[in-house]
């Protein structure tokens, strides 16, 4: 397979949608080699006193050159605070890898949004559809989505990001552990859907990339804030033993529904939950708020996960 080698300098703090893979010895100026997985590194302290906008935070990230028009063709409430958009894209040159984000351009609004894609590359290839799940905030792009966006609204998108899973047929099989906090599920759900597509292709055609098992750990305040939970349960049923999920809730006050009960644990994701998955052929993808990322990074180091097997993306 062909590889593109790109030189990128990373600075911290990063980012609204910045992916970081930590290497033990590399400097902050590293070679990014885009193949099945994305390699990047950073050194420094992850702190910021000044709120940066999306374009500023992601200035050093990979971006495609193409900007594509898109039309809103579906809007649903994924939760009380999250809207799910379906966007129709006619530009055949528009592509993305599972886990990436988009710059989101809105006519009449100068601020550019940055939202992780929550659908699979397969949906775009087959139907020309891309999906986003956006939590309500007063930030102009998110506020517009929740208060003004309507069917047939037109926007523009540009794909970017160094956090993705894109294995090729000749690559060695790996297992994945995906760990999500809150709306950090978005890029990991895209990866999970892509993995389901890979399993389906392998079962149907008998060739292509042979995917290992995938474990998803997903933490939120309560079950009403667990996005895509019905879809995730459906994937578990469709691919038993290949895709499994453990939901964690930290502030549950109501009764957990019967369908979810077998899969829900009250309390945070712990060392005990994760240590059984440590192996040389397991990759770890994490997305959530910075304190969660920092805590889990230390936890994984403590249980012997090699630092070059951990990928993460922080959101603010």
Automatic annotation (TrEMBL):
Keyword NAD: yes
Highest taxon listed in the record's lineage: Eukaryota
UniProt key word NAD: yes
PROSITE patterns for this protein: FAD_FR
Keywords, in A-Z order: NAD, Oxidoreductase
N-terminal signal peptide: none
Any one GO CC term of the record: mitochondrion
A Pfam family this chain is assigned to: NAD_binding_1
Domain FAD-binding FR-type: 65-192
GO MF terms, alphabetically ordered: oxidoreductase activity
Family matches, as PANTHER family: OXIDOREDUCTASE NAD-BINDING DOMAIN-CONTAINING PROTEIN 1
Name recorded for this polypeptide: Oxidoreductase NAD-binding domain-containing protein 1
């Amino acid at each position: 397979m062909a590889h593109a080698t790109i030189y990128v300098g990373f600075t911290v703090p990063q980012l609204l949608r910045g992916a970081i893979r930590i290497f033990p010895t590399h400097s902050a100026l590293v070679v990014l080699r885009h193949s099945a997985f994305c390699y990047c590194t950073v050194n420094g302290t992850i702190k910021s006193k000044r709120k940066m906008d999306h374009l500023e935070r992601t200035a050093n990230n990979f971006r495609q050159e193409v900007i594509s028009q898109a039309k809103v063709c579906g809007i649903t409430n994924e939760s009380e605070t999250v809207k799910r958009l379906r966007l129709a894209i006619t530009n055949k040159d528009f592509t993305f890898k599972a886990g990436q984000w988009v710059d989101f351009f809105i006519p009449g609004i100068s601020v550019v949004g940055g939202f992780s894609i929550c659908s699979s590359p397969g949906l775009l290839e087959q139907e020309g559809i891309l999906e986003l799940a956006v939590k309500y905030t007063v930030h102009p792009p998110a506020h517009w989505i929740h208060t003004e966006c309507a069917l047939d609204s037109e926007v523009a998108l540009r794909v970017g990001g160094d956090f993705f899973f894109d294995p090729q047929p000749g690559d060695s099989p790996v297992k994945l552990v995906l760990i999500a906090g809150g709306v950090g599920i978005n890029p990991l759900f895209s990866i999970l859907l892509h993995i389901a597509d890979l399993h389906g292709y392998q079962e149907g055609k008998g060739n292509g990339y042979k995917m290992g098992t995938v474990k998803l750990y997903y933490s939120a305040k309560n079950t009403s804030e667990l996005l895509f939970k019905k879809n995730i349960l459906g994937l578990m049923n469709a691919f038993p033993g290949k895709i499994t999920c453990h939901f964690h809730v930290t502030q549950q006050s109501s009764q957990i529904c019967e369908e979810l009960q077998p899969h829900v644990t009250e309390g945070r994701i712990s060392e005990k939950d994760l240590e059984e998955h440590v192996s040389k052929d397991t990759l770890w993808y994490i997305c959530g708020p910075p304190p969660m990322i920092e805590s889990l990074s230390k936890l994984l180091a403590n249980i012997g996960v090699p630092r070059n097997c951990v990928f993460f993306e922080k959101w603010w």
